[in-house]
Structures are given as C-alpha cells and as structure tokens.
Amino acid sequence: VLLWSLDPESLCHCKLTDFGIATHLAPVGARGLIGTKGFIAPEVLYIGKRKQHSVYDHKADIFSFGMFLYQMIARRHPYSELQPQRIDAAVESGERPRLQDVSQAESAYHYLTRLMQTCWEDNPRNRPTTEEIIKTVCRYSLQSIMCVHPVRSRFSLRHICAITPADFTYAQVPRNSSEVWVCCDGAEGAELNIYNANTMVKISKNFIKENQVQCICLCGDHVWVGSRAGIEYGVIDIFSISTRELVHNIRMRENSVSCIACSDKTVYLGTLEGYCFSFARDIKLIQANAKPRYKYVSEHAVDGIVATKQCVWISHTRYIYFLDLDNLALEGSLHRQQDAFIGLLCLAADGNTVWSAHRGGVILSAWDAIKKLNKFDIDVGKHLRSIAELHTNQPHQDMVITAMAPALDTVWVGIATGHVLVFNDEELLTWCHPYTEYVRFIACIPSSGPCETEACMVITGAKEF
C-alpha cells in the first residue's frame, strides 16, 4: 500500500482490515463467529458454542493483536504445532503459544513480549485498551531495550566487561557469540559471572576471595580484574578469555587499582594512591615476573585512565595528565578552572574523542584526543531537571552521574536516579528510566545481537538487573 500526499504538512493515516470478516460493533457489543484459527479470542469462541458470554467487544481485537505480535516475535503462526481442529480448544482452555524455544522473546523483545502476554489475557477486562497499547509501543523502553535479565547472586552488581567475536578471533578462540563478564561483590568476597550476551545464559562463574572489585578491563586475550583486599594491598586477577579461568594474579602492596586501560602492547593501571603502573600485555612476560614501570602522579586517587594513540590520559580531581606510552614521562597537563571534577575517562570508538564525567557530578565533557583540548561540556543535570518537570512534575534530588560509556557516535550516561540519557555531541537524543536505583555500569558491545541486525548493543546494570 502506497499512501502519500502532495501536501508535506498533512498527516496521512493508513488503516488496514480484512473487510471480509469485519462486523459492526453495536453499543451492546458484537455477535458472530468468524476469523482465522489461533487469532480468535476465547469470548468469541464462547459465543459460537453458546457459552458464558452473549456478546463481545473491541477487546477481542486486542487478543488478535497479541497473536499478531507472537507471529512477529516467533516468526511462525500461533499454535503451529497443533492440528487445526485442536486450536480452538487450546484457546478456550487458556493455553497460549509456546515461548520456551523462542529465545528472542526475552533476549531481543522483552517489553514487546510483555505487551503480547497482556493482550492475549483470557479475561477481556485484563487486556489493555488501544490507547494503552499506543502509549506502550511509543515508549523508548519497548523500542530499544532488548532484554531485562535478573542477576542471581548473593553479591551486588559492580562492574562489567564485554567480549565480542572480533576479540575472540584476535585471541584465536573459535566463538561467534559475544560474552559479558559481570563482577559482583559483597562483604564475603566477590564473583565473576560470565554470560552469553545474546541469550544472557550463564556460562561460568569464578570466585574472587575476600576482595572488593574496583574495575575490570579486556586487555588482548585476557580480562584483568582489579580488586582491593582490605586496606593493605590491591590484587589484579588475570583471566584467559579462552578457558575463562584464572591464569595469574598480581599483588600490589600499598596500592589498590582504581582503573585499567590498555594499548596494543601495554596495560596501564591507575591506583587509589595516585600512581600509574604499566605492565607488558604479554602474559608470559608477566608470569616471568617482568617488573612494571610506574610513576607517582598525585596525592589524590586516579579517577580515570585511557590510552590513546598518542599518550596515556590520567585524571584526578580537576586535572588531566598526559604520560608517554612507553616510559610514562609527563608530557603535559590540563587544569579545569570550574568547580566540576574530571572523573571517569572513556575513549570513543573512533579514537578521536575522550569523554569524561565525574561520579557525583553533573558535567559531561568531550575532549579532543589529538589536540588535547576541551571540545564542549554538557550539563546533564539541566536535562534531567527538564525531564523530571515534564514527566513527573517532581524534581529529582539525586541528579548526579554514576556511569558512562561511548557507543558508536553517541555517549550513554547513567544517573543516580536510575535514568539513562543518550547524547550525540551536545544534543540529548533520548532517555529512559529503567531503574529505581542508581545505574552502576554501562558498557558497549560493538557487535550484532540476537536480531543479527544491530550495529552494537549497550548493556546497563543497577542492583539486581
């Protein structure tokens, strides 16, 4: 159907229906039994067999819409496994099309699946109205959130690391699905849970005894986990992405790792004590006790660290230091005059922009990675206040940044209120409010997902989800 108008300002509304089975809806309801098997609502079937109801209303169409959603999600006809003569009885008895073998129902179309299940409720009163459906499908959460997964752990979610098929190819590991490595910790220690990124099925679990996890980073063919053992020393646990097992650990006396970054040949660590360490990325050299380089940067904790093609960026309070990639010699620095701290550092996918955001602040900043200059600042709090006034009429008290990650040409920002805001340069593209507590992490997975059409996926976490 091609529907168009010569007037570009006019609104064109297209409605399609099968007029061969359409019927007039009187004020008291409708009668008649006709339709496609599997799409006919149970109350319509009741009428055909002179059962409970004498008439039905537009909620019968809502049931049919739910079955239409199933056909979209599962890519097959409802009740395709049943003989045609058994379908009506299955609908009447409350049996609904199976979802057990439709993995994308949870991993790709979570909210659409929830809508589908409310549409095919047996009791018409429990089904949504057309207005409610329109409101639901217009929500950003339904359009973009693919999966909501509860993390079953006695520990709290802390940090995450994503591994793509390209990373496995580099490590010569024959895997074609992305994985997410999730760190959780608590008073009794920590654990590292590994999931298939497309299905969120847990693959394995490793315990990190009596430590509090500070950070996690993929460095070549190994994942580095920085943790803190009390106040005496820090520990770096190094896991192979091939075996998913611990292959080495490093004890750092009087230093606790706060952040990790890596280049093609080197792993860089920032510490709570203000040091920067550099290790060879080759695990064999580390296991042979190769000594790291280190440089004392500041009496304050290192908040963020990234390695660009030109140098290592290190942030603390209002300063950014630039260190030589090889010998960690100081090449220069920047000092922010405003009250806002620098905070977290993340390198954009193109390598040309470094993003910074202070946990506990409201300023998101973009920096030119080559010229080492500030490009622009975004007051995230201003945007969040506008959202709060427009949608809740109540101001949010905790308008501070808690997480950040670049994804393609955007940057995603997590807020203490549970909001996630998405920016393209200085423009707020969209936002959602998936959590009731602060967003603990955001990570980009630069590979296709369960629909096999995505340019990338973004994964967020807060408390148990």
Structural summary, described in words:
The chain is α+β, with helices and mostly antiparallel strands and 465 residues long. It contains 10 helices and 26 strands. It has a 4-stranded antiparallel sheet with strand order 1-2-3-4. The chain has a 4-stranded antiparallel sheet with strand order 5-6-7-8. The chain has a 4-stranded antiparallel sheet with strand order 9-10-11-12. Helix 2 runs antiparallel to helix 5 (110-119).
Name the strands of the widest sheet in spatial order. 1-2-3-4
| Structure classification | alpha+beta
Span of the ends, CA to CA: 42 Å
Percent of residues in beta strands: 25-35%
Mean pLDDT: 85
Radius of gyration: 27 Å
* Biggest pleated-sheet summary: 4 strands, antiparallel
Envelope shape? elongated
Low-confidence stretches: none
- Structure annotation, total helices: 10
E-strand count: 26
List keywords for this structure.
4-stranded antiparallel beta sheet; 18% helix; 10 helices; alpha+beta; 465 residues
Could you give the topology of this structure?
Layout: H1 42-48, H2 59-74, H3 84-92, H4 104-107, H5 110-119, H6 130-137, H7 140-144, E1 156-163, H8 165-170, E2 179-186, E3 189-196, E4 202-209, E5 212-219, E6 222-229, E7 233-240, E8 246-253, E9 257-262, E10 266-271, E11 275-280, H9 283-287, E12 293-296, E13 304-307, E14 312-316, E15 319-323, E16 330-335, E17 344-347, E18 353-357, E19 363-368, E20 373-379, H10 380-391, E21 401-407, E22 410-415, E23 420-424, E24 427-432, E25 441-445, E26 457-461
Antiparallel strand pairs: 1-2, 2-3, 3-4, 5-6, 6-7, 7-8, 9-10, 10-11, 11-12, 13-14, 14-15, 15-16, 17-18, 18-19, 19-20, 21-22, 22-23, 23-24, 25-26
